[in-house]
Fold Acyl-coenzyme A oxidase.
Amino acid sequence: MAEHNVCVELVRERQKCTFEVQELIHLIDGGITATEERREVENVVCTDPRIKDVVPEEYLSHKERYENAIRKNCILQEILKKYTEKRTWDNFRPSNKYRISSGVVKDISPFMLHTGMFIPTLVNQSDDEQKAKWVPKAMSMEIIGTYAQTELGHGSFIRGLETTATYDPNTEEFVLNTPNLTSYKWWPGGLAHTANHCIVVAQLYSKGQHYGVHPFFVQIRDIETHVPLPGIKVGEIGPKLGFQTANNGFLGFENFRIPRRNMLMKNAQVLKDGTYIKSKNDKLTYGTMVFVRVIILFDLAFELSRAATIAVRYSAVRHQSQLKANEPELQIIDYVTQQHKLFIGVSTSHVFRVVGLWLWNTYVKVNADIGKGNMDQLPELHALACCLKAVCSRDAAARVEEFRLACGGHGFMTSSNLPIINGIVSASITYEGEFSVLMLQTARFLMKAWNGVLARKTLTPTVSYLSKFSNSDRVQWANTTAGIISGFQAAAAGKTKEAYAAIQSYLKPGTDYEDAWNSASVQLVSASEAHCRAILCEISWSEMQRLSKTVSPNLGKVLLELAELYLTYWSLEKRGDLLMYTTISTADIAKLQARYEELLALIRPNAVGIVDGFDIRDEILNSTLGAYDGRVYERLMEEAKKSPLNAEPVNESFHKYIKPLMLKAKL
Ligand SMILES: CCC/C=C/C(=O)SCCNC(=O)CCNC(=O)[C@H](O)C(C)(C)COP(=O)([O-])OP(=O)([O-])OC[C@H]1O[C@@H](n2cnc3c(N)ncnc32)[C@H](O)[C@@H]1OP(=O)([O-])[O-]
Ligand SMILES: Cc1cc2nc3c(=O)[nH]c(=O)nc-3n(C[C@H](O)[C@H](O)[C@H](O)COP(=O)(O)OP(=O)(O)OC[C@H]3O[C@@H](n4cnc5c(N)ncnc54)[C@H](O)[C@@H]3O)c2cc1C
């Protein structure tokens, strides 16, 4: 980046920085080589002239926008081939390399579900023979797929799906049907006009018996002509709050036949004669969702880092109002209320990344155990993935909205990119398991764990703290990071105990457990949230502490400040809980508040350096407000001039409508 074009405010901010930004970049990427590899890919893609839009995508019609997204994503796939030649799914791990997609289209890629869910499902749910047949074709994009589970009538309640796959032993085929309107698949990304294959989750019937939902590999369009195959009704579901280029679709089947071996058979099988062989655990069918819930934490960390970069750089460039008479207007980043809006979002991005890595490692370990036939840790992984996905997506959406508000009016401009990021992040609260639904899954686990506490059993690692805080005494508070973590655990234990007690109190004679559960469900969600916050605080603090020891003292100090800010911010937010479940006093809270303000001041001089550490190229930020050089006003005007309305000084609607209206007014 040419430093001479950079605005004076950002030059000054960068001079103030107390740590080596490159070191932070390498830490986030996972090493120097990873940074170099990522930058190489980004450089090749972002400098390809075919990728640059002449007309910004938001001015295109819905149809043009999709076509443009497809054109550019095909170029991306072509370029990426060179870099992913040696890649097999076995060596997959979350990486910053994949964020290049945001440098190609501002909104979501129509191929997102192909890589994000179609391939992972083929890899994790097919038997070896199926894998060998399908995975290479999917990896090379010889076939393009999606994941079709949700229907018009059911999304959360998977057992309620209505699409049927009925086995016909005479032809050794499954017959797929969507018997009514509500059984139409609805939502899958890329399903409408992009994919020629999909994983269809359908109710399995064989020999007159119903065996629940199972995944099937289904070709829906002709490979050559792309025309939907006979018996397939497919189309697009229309514009949404975001995800405009994701090509979400609907899909119906009318006696559509697929070979028996198109049922994904790693876990359960249907033999030629229709005999059903049960899976070791029927929840393994839900495996792709667990995988994606884990990966979502990295996506959220990335989207937060984009929004943070935009809002922090803009706040350093923007001047507004005088703090003291006769003095220049302040950079808005110097208002402490602005720092309060910004820095927690910056720190949250780091927290999600490090907790995401911890969750990923847990996922890999549990999956390896499952491979050896040991399912013991699956419930704990499921409970963790559910609450972390739910809480982190909701927090990320709140932080992105705060970043948008922190940019005042300009944050409302599409050209700031904050509205598009907002759409992307808010969708994640709903997809892959809706917030409350997932929180209640974790609550189920917590209720079982509380039964374990009462029976004095040894609990699994992530809930073992419940035993420690099982009595009614308020926990001794200490104004230290260890004290804060312990306070959050005490709150989680207290809320778990109360939700458990609430269920018991609703369980009067004649009341079903399910009704009592429903009556207590607000408290159950609250217990899940508290449990999740305890995990976020404990894991992020221990991980950031560990990382701080692997870097230079200057960077280590910054990492710890960010981690402590996160803990302190949430202690203040949740002071009510802490007052209920610990001995925290108003004087302790005042000390926390003072420390929080101290941390804002400590982070302030490094704020621009810290977001530079996310190392997000301008083409990936896509923002008039957040570019590296800080030329905010020039960019806003340049982008405004691209409005098609500015192509002519007088729009024809004046002569057609406004002038006649004015003339009529004269009469
Ligand atoms: C880019 C955008 C892409 C988006 C894509 C999508 O959105 S794709 C679409 C994404 N769609 C969604 O995400 C839909 C969200 N909905 C769901 O995932 C499920 O319907 C459900 C989990 C809510 C309920 O399922 P259910 O009615 O079958 O279950 P139940 O409540 O009766 O519990 C029975 C037992 O099973 C356990 N268990 C459950 N799941 C798992 C698991 N994954 N692993 C392990 N275990 C699991 C549970 O803990 C319980 O154990 P317990 O306590 O008895 O020991
Ligand atoms: C942008 C986007 C992309 C998507 N992509 C895909 C895709 O590629 N493939 C795919 O298959 N699906 C996809 N989906 C669908 C998505 O997975 C579902 O929308 C999601 O799982 C929620 O289900 P639902 O829409 O049926 O909501 P509902 O379940 O109808 O939720 C409505 C309300 O009911 C409440 N509710 C429901 N059940 C319970 C309960 N048991 N207890 C308490 N409250 C409850 C919810 O909390 C919510 O407040 C996508 C959705 C979006 C928004």
